[in-house]
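#random but structural
TW: two for the price of one
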Amino acid sequence: MYDVSTRKRALALVAQGRSLNSVSRQTGISRSAIRSWQDRLQPRPRMAHPDPGPPADESAYAYLLGLYLGDGCISAHPRGGYYLRITCADAWPGLIELCREAIRKVRPCAGLYVAQKQGCVAVTSYSRSWPVLFPQHGPGKKHERLIALDPWQQELVDAHPWEFIRGLIHSDGCRITNWTTRTVAGERQRYEYPRYFFTNVSDDIRRLYTDTLDTLGVEWTLCTRNGNPFNISVARKASVALMDAHVGPKY
């Protein structure tokens, strides 16, 4: 198994015009592995799907994009068309309803239903246009392929950054209360403070999150929890207050 940086480095060599044999000899990676990565990372033809036009509700789309990047997938129907599925835990009924509402606003004519799973539901919608509205769709896991926004998507995120952040937090984030102790007037006292965490294995998705936080003036830090380096923490008081005003906890 190779990490994402190794794959990107090998593909960068191929993009320079090097042969698969040459790159394989230099990196020690088999030609078949490099070829499979090329197949996964090559842009898909957009003309294969009907152009649905812009999302019916841009703010709802920015939120739904955050949900999709965190807990969403798109799969083809055997007889044509595509399913968009967003997985939501049963513990957050408010999130399930917000997800359904966002899909209705983005594609009012798309079919929509909820499939109950163990401990969660899959909010599912059928439409031929989902791969165009979410061009990050592709084979394999998101953290194993490049994830970048198309220019039109970035424009919508720039116009509705808090909705995008809210979708990401509602999918792969949380608001928790940490505690520590401090000495006040010679007495040890417990001190609690809130913070937001966002956890995603994809370097690209974490970067989309932190880049958007930067534009909003939210301070963040990269944090390792339980040996896991994929966490983004927002803990400074002013930044938490901003997140509380625009995102808030899941419910």
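TW: number two ↓
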Amino acid sequence: MTAPVRIPFPVVDEVSRHCLQEQEPETVHIEVHLPGPLEPARLRKAFTEALHRHPRILMREAGGPWFRRRYEWELTAEPDTEVVTFTPAGPRALQDARTRALAEAPPLTMSPPIRLEAVGLAAGDRASTTQGTVLLLTINHTALDGPACLRILATAAELYGGQDNNPTAPPTRAAEPGKEPPDTPTTWSPPARVAQGTPDPSPGNGMLVTELPLPHRPKGSPYTVNDQLMVTTALTIAHWNREHGARPRPLRITMPVDDRPRDTTMPIGNGTRLVEVPFSPGELKAEMSTLLRRTAERTRALKSQPRPQLGHGAALLTSPWAPVAARAALTRGLRRAAAPWTSTTLLSNIGRIPYPLDFGEEAGRAHAVWFSAPARMPRGLTVTTASTAGRLHLALRWSRSLLSHGDGAHLRDLFEHYLHTTEVAP
């Protein structure tokens, strides 16, 4: 019998594995809304086949002695457990599924470390005004990220419905040759934190999702919708902090950058690299057109710079110079010490969903897709956006030790207001 293939944990996976917390699981949630019903047996068959088409997802954490130098993924020929479950429509069916996605991470010791819940919707449900089905995918972020699992869902859609689910070409931004690198504010002081609102006594994360119009952008603008979202996030947090009596401090917003292809050759795993976009308090008072142009220059420069996923320090920390148990303790200690210098928040803009996510004539094509990223302290708040069918789908996710649902609703209102202010006239 051939021994299972083993793959050492990449840097991102290992750092995440070292720092797991039961109180705030590292989950990514993807929520796909379809207009019609799905056949359970047919969906199970399509999703299982999609897993086999992308075999890197069929993995579990391999066991090992305490003195081992590496965590390792063990590839499996088949899933260890039933991945797809079905929940009938009910007054709280979708709300309860969202709660599970934030509170219960799929175990790393079972292959694959994801689960897919098909939730029936009926008109009048608390979380929906339409009938249909919601596919709610919960991902253990130590193993995988949202874009990789969306690729697997697109493969499942094609197998289920027989429709072409090839990705559309990504939008391009014309290069501007001869431009000098933009001025970037530098500071040796820790960045601003999101001011504390009204903490919730229960542990874990809270989340709010909403649908907004895509912001208008004059033709030929030097900035993208992503730049508008970045400015909106900065202005929203600056406003929130002013309301809560925090003195003005520089903001740093983490932005994931994903350079992977979106077709069936897409590498499956944690494939994004993180860059930080800074804003000084004075910059946020500039005229909107100036702020947008400056932000566009900054994000363009940051995206073009080659950089390890978590920086050079993380690569050194995860080299096998000592047993994983010792390096885990060191990593957790360094993370606590570096907490004040952690970025203010994370904005993950998935952008236009590149796949139709068309499940055929009866189930139909996705008309809304939400993502949410973990919101563990010290950031305590993440902003995730995607666009589908010409609409912007926004998810705010927060640590309940920092904010309450009412705080989330106020932040949503501020975000909507500032998003509208980025629609400057030509």
